Amino acid sequence: MRSFTVTDMQWHAGKLYVAGVSNGTFASSLRILGTPFDGSQTVTSVAMYHTTHNQVETRAPIRAMSFQMLNGRDTLVAAYLCSPIVTIPVDALKDGAHVEGKTIAELGYGDVANSMVSFSFGPPGQATPAILLVNDQREAGTGRARAVWGGGRGRGASPAAGRRDRLGQPERRDVRGGPARPADGTAAARLL
């Protein structure tokens, strides 16, 4: 557990965002420290829908994160240790809040995100925002941020209310509202 105390740090808009797990329970937390560093911080508990486990959970911490403007909102894009990619509006990250991010992709079972970087490419004035995701089991992938924007507009992956698959289990839904794809990176390949 100690190795997950801090899993990633990013500087954004004059604040330091620190992802990891809380010290009391194995729950994913996001700390935000303002500057100058004076010891004050906000702590938000963050959860996400994990398609492989078919449940909303807080057990896995954010492993890599970056920031994008999605649909006009400052948004944290987070890759979790247990492989979902999630978006969380920055304005929802309040002290003591419990926030559920929107799952927009799944890297696949056993994959671990190592780093995520936001950047732009193209001529000045026409630059296209993009994300580079480096992970453990597959080659690094880049994707245009508009693919993330598409995921940001829908409801994301979530348990389908009351619907059951052919085995009687709650049916999972992908970012477009259709049945979820296998957790083998297929959805992530389309996104990234």
Structure description:
Helices cover 8% and strands 49% of the residues. The protein has 192 residues and is mainly beta. The radius of gyration is 16 Å and the shape is globular. It starts with 7 loop residues before the first strand and ends with a helix. Strands 1, 2, 3, 4, 5 and 9 form a six-stranded mixed β-sheet that branches. It has a four-stranded antiparallel β-sheet with strand order 6-7-8-10. The chain has two helices and 15 strands. It has helices spanning 145-153, 186-191, and strands at residues 8-12, 15-21, 28-34, 42-50, 55-57, 62-70, 73-80, 84-89, 98-100, 102-106, 113-121, 128-135, 141-144, 158-164, 170-173. The chain has one domain. A hairpin with a 5-residue loop joins β12 (128-135) and β13 (141-144).
Would you kindly provide a brief summary of this structure?
This protein is mostly beta strands and 192 residues long. The chain is built from 2 helices and 15 strands.
